[in-house]
Amino acid sequence: MYIVSITSQGQFSIPARLRRELGFHKHKKAIVSVDKGKMIVEPASDFMSLKGSLHKYAKKGMPINKIIELEEKAWEKGAVERYVRTLSLRERRKLGSLRKS
């Protein structure tokens, strides 16, 4: 058992011995989950290891064309939000006044 410190950003370091033992390597991804009040951190070895991780977000019983429509709207919204973040405060205010008219 190891005791680790948690930073103000919510980060902690996995001790080197555990990283080696579990196969955690630099620039690798990890799968983090919660089970019965405990955090579980597992190495994500490849794409297939993510199988089922998005299951709770699935749109069960929804027609594929509706899912595609929702996805396209989400992409459009995200593109607009990214663009607006690049604008200066003055440009944002001007854009806001244009939307109201």
Task: Outline the secondary-structure elements.
Elements: H1 16-22, E1 29-35, E2 38-44, H2 64-86, H3 89-100
Antiparallel strand pairs: 1-2
GO molecular function, one term: DNA binding
Domain SpoVT-AbrB: 1-46
InterPro entries: SpoVT-AbrB_dom, SpoVT-AbrB_sf
Quick overview of this protein structure:
This protein has 101 residues and is of the alpha+beta class. Helices cover 42% and strands 14% of the residues.
Describe what this molecule looks like in 3D.
The chain has two domains: 1-46, Pemi-like Protein 1, Chain: D, CATH 2.10.260; 57-100. It is 42% helix and 14% strand. It has three helices and two strands. It has helices at residues 16-22, 64-86, 89-100; strands at residues 29-35, 38-44. The longest helix is centred in the C-terminal third of the chain and has 23 residues, at 64-86.
Descriptive keywords:
101 residues, alpha+beta, Pemi-like Protein 1, Chain: D, 2 domains, two-stranded antiparallel ribbon, 3 helices, 2 strands, 42% helix, 14% strand, extended
Question: Strands of the biggest beta sheet: in what spatial order?
Answer: 1-2
Largest sheet: 2 strands, antiparallel
CA-CA gap between termini: 63 Å
Alpha-beta content class = alpha+beta
Number of helices: 3
Helix content: 40-55%
Residue-averaged pLDDT: 83
Domain SpoVT-AbrB: 1-46
Organism: Candidatus Woesebacteria bacterium GW2011_GWB1_39_10b
GO molecular function: DNA binding
InterPro entries: SpoVT-AbrB_dom, SpoVT-AbrB_sf
